[in-house]
Design brief:
Layout (H helix, E strand, L loop, with lengths): L1 H21 L6 H13 L4 E6 L6 H9 L16 E5 L4 E6 L4 E5 L4 H4 L12 E8 L2 H4 L2 E5 L7 H11 L4 E7 L6 H13 L5 E6 L6 H17 L11 E3 L2 H10 L2 H6 L2 H15 L4 H66 L1 H17 L3 H31 L47 H16 L6 H5 L3 H34 L6 E3 L4 H26 L20 E3 L16 H7 L4 H5 L6 H25 L6 H10 L8 H13 L8 H15 L8 H23 L1
Helix pairs in contact: 1-2, 1-12, 1-18, 2-12, 3-9, 12-14, 12-17, 12-18, 12-21, 13-14, 13-15, 13-17, 15-17, 23-25, 24-25
Length: 730
Amino acid sequence: MQQQYESYKDLADSLKSASALLNLERKSQLHQDIITICNHLVNPSFRIAVFGPFNHGKSTLLNAMLGNRTLPIDLIPTTGAAITVKYGSDVRTRIMLLDGTEISRSGTEVLQQFAILDGNRQMQKDVASVEVFCPHPFLETGVELLDLPGTNDRDEQDSLVREQLLSADLVIQLLDARKLMTLGERENLRDWLLDRGIKTVIFVANFLNLLEPDEQKQVQNRLVFVAESFRAELPPGFSNLYRVDALPALRARLKGDVAAANSSGLVAFETALQNIVGILQPNRGSVRLPRVQAIASQIQFSLKAKIDPIAIEIKSFDDKQNSKIEIKQKAANLIYKGFATSVGELRDWLALPKLLTKYQAGAAVALAENNFKVWQTNTLKKDLTQLQFAVVKWLYQAYEFFQEERLQDLLIPFPSEPQVILPSKPSNTDDLSEPGSIAVGGGIGWLLGGPVGAAVVGSISYLLNKNIQTQDEQLAKESYHQEVAKLCISAVEDYLSRFSSQGLAILAEYEQKSEKVICFEFSQEPLEITNRRENLQQLQNGFNQLLRELEQVKILSNHQPYKELPKYTNTNRKYSPQPKKVKTSPQKDPGVKQQQENTAKNSETRIKSVSPRPEEVEAKFRYWELNEEIARMKAEMRSPGFKTGKQQNTTQSNKAPNQPKTQTEKDKITRAYGILGLQANASLAEVKQAYRTLVKKWHPDLFVGKPQLLKQAQEKMHLLNEAYTILSEK
């Protein structure tokens, strides 16, 4: 029993909490019903309410049941306030006023002052509750009797009566046999009671003794119809209709006339009432919980009416925010992908073995020809500038997209020019018979000038393209121009080594700084949305708590609990692709010479422009794709009513082509499909794939050194670009 009481208490607390979330007016019907049912739910007593229209004999019936004139009786509408009759060792009255004043008196005479309607048939407005204590065995079992004001007199009284009915475990509806309720009155009463889950109702007919015998039979038949039309839920075997002549019954009790009490119908009614209470009282929950269910259902509908619009509003806001974040995250990842690839290419280019392989021969020749500065500007700086820009342009993209910190451009300086101190010339400088001593061209301003200078250049090419480690004999009798050539090669190697070491260090530092650029900060949501989110959380928690408490007392609900809202933090947060830490190359690679010697390529071939490899064309196309994707996302971000990511992707890939308005447009589109080798109305994904395949095949960089094919490739690329533009924008 104690456990059941605790469950009911928790349920009552949950009902009150949910009611508070609705911000109901204190005088609203729902608010009054909630307070009444919560108080009743935890009341250990079994309450029996007697109600009916004024002057129907309610107080007379209760006095007859109690065996004395405990309650006031008069010819005018009497009881102005609800009077609760409880067990007490002696008859006494306790009245609580609205201002908190308690009035306690022996007997019931004080009721004439506080519980009787005044001359204008008005109730006392300052009375909060009226209790009468009486030493009756029926009351001692934990039963309370409730004498309610008469109905059909004033709206204010009717409202008070109906509120009190909600807190009654058993309702006794007193009927006047001389004037039964109309069909409309009966249906209104039934609907009001059933809407609140009140089904334990007993009808008692009074004044039947005042009718003629023939009239009594007719009225009795009508009473049976009234009782049967009301779906009462009483224990099996008990009727919901009884006849009690209240005034004769009271007189019989006051006189102690048992026979007269029996003939008035009082004894039969009391016996049935006590048996019904004996069955219902131990399991009061079966009576009260249906009423709780009816009230809880109204609360749940009211809560949902507040929750669902806010939830839709929050979801709409979150969808838009998540779409923005998704676009920014994707952009950050794409930008970092391009940045990391470009950094990787520059880092690979700065690796000393690669520099030596690609530039040592040309640099050494330029040094021997006293033309190093020009070579550095036209060759090395040109390649470096292109690679540096490939890195920096991604940070331009990031800054434009996210407006975070802006870095200075990447700048890798060149070391000081290499210096060569010539050895003393041998006496015989005209001997040019050694292998590799071939004059290359007729340059002016060489270090040595003349045939010896030409021989130095030839030796540079010879030494870098022959495995000099195996020519022991020639090393033993090395000529002067070979010695100078080796000095030029060594000086350039030192220059490129310093350039590599310094460049890799600067690049690594620059890459770390890029984390401040390729990132974005999650913007704080408006305070209004934060407040709405908190309000929604409170409403959903109250709704779910009420559902749980209803389940604890076995009350089923048609509603499902709301899923817990994800925790939202409105603090500043940053998103970054988190680049991997890059290890810088060592400053000096001891295996350079070995790799240099094992790389046998002609220096003249290295100096000439070389056609790009297929993987280089693939990299260029990959950059083009990244740029295109980022540009599309920028356009999305600028659009005021952009769609969510999934919707946007669906629209981009699956939308049906718009029908062109003119025949000219139709012809252009048909021709564009033909250029890409596609069927008409191919999807955008198919267009993109076809364009990609053809670009790899016809990229002009693949035809360097082949003038006729190069011109053909350029024309083909022009057509491909035009076709792709038409189909992607239609």
